[in-house]
Design brief:
Layout (H helix, E strand, L loop, with lengths): L5 E5 L6 H9 L11 E4 L6 H4 L4 E6 L2 E15 L5 E7 L4 E7 L6 E4 L20 H9 L4
Length: 143
């Protein structure tokens, strides 16, 4: 049986978790069956591990702030004929303890033991701090 692995991905152009949620509500960011998805050029080699309970952890303004369970990987062909991977996720963003993450291109694998913990249910709906303050607090270890 495959172990689990997560992905970590920059949410480029997103200001906060609400902005990511708003983008995912846009029809262009959804599959034909209405699920949120992110299209990327590279197909994960560790597909079985990702689909064994993995999540995508979203980096917003240099900080991992939320995650989504990955449901499946769909093939998409671009207008240029190039095969791409649509990472299809369960709707809804789960807020996690703010964790600094340096910029990188594409996505990266992340072991479950390295993943930030989910915020407790009572904190999932808290109003977010400004991104700069969230990053400064995360940099000094305050979550």
């Amino acid at each position: 049986m495959a172990t689990c692995v997560n992905l970590v991905k920059l949410s480029v152009g997103t200001e906060d978790v609400a902005g990511l949620a708003a983008w995912q509500a846009n029809r262009r960011a959804q599959t034909d069956d209405g699920l949120p998805r992110h299209v990327t050029r590279m197909w994960p080699k560790r597909e079985a591990e990702i689909l064994n309970g993995g999540s995508i952890y979203w980096v917003i303004k240099g900080v991992i702030l939320c995650r989504q369970l990955i449901l499946r990987l769909d093939e998409r062909l671009g207008e240029d004929g190039i095969r791409r991977c649509a990472i299809v996720c369960k709707p809804g963003l789960i807020r996690v303890a703010a964790t600094p993450k340096r910029a990188f291109q594409g996505w990266r694998y992340m072991a479950p033991e390295d993943a930030p913990v989910d915020l407790p249910d009572g904190r999932q709906e808290e109003e977010a701090l400004p991104p700069e303050l969230t990053k400064a607090l995360a940099d000094i270890g305050v979550r």
